[in-house]
Amino acid sequence: MYTKEFEIRWNDLDANRHLANKAYIEFAAHTRMSFLIENGFDQRLLGKLNIGPVVFYEHIYYFKEVFSGKPLTVSLELKGMSEDGMFFEFHHNYYDYKGRNVAHCEIMGAWIDLEARKLIGLPEEVSHLFDKVERAKDFRVLTKEDTRRHAKTPVDLNV
């Protein structure tokens, strides 16, 4: 399992002096990007291919408060990916300095062509990079229907 350790900084806290919601999201994003970079998906490659990751949703479940002064470890598991590599699902667990699970995050996203602004499957030249990535025990092949699991429809203001 991939993990990354974080020091909780003053600006990671909220008005209640515990870890702020934004910090959980930032730590998860940093963990994912570190993981991707270490597996060959660095900014140079993404720029060459003119692709980037987009997030459909990010759900966080909080179990215990986290305070400053002790490190926080964030794990990452690849829980699912579509056959063409377009869609991906990662799960993160947050652990305090004693190894207690204090929060959980589920994220689903896809890859986008930054010029066409459309979702795309991973190009063949890089799709093999995910073959070497450890998959979760309950890994599954994602379909477009999986991306609609928590579907919400926008409702515009009547102006």
Automatic annotation (TrEMBL):
Keyword Hydrolase part of the UniProt annotation: yes
Record-linked Pfam families: 4HBT_2
The alphabetical list of record keywords is: Hydrolase
Q: Does the keyword Hydrolase apply?
A: yes
Q: Which CDD domains match?
A: 4HBT (cd00586)
Family as reported in the entry's similarity comment: Belongs to the 4-hydroxybenzoyl-CoA thioesterase family.
Q: Which PANTHER family match?
A: 4-HYDROXYBENZOYL-COA THIOESTERASE FAMILY MEMBER, NOVEL THIOESTERASE SUPERFAMILY DOMAIN AND SAPOSIN A-TYPE DOMAIN CONTAINING PROTEIN (0610012H03RIK)
Query: What protein name is recorded for this chain?
Result: Thioesterase family protein
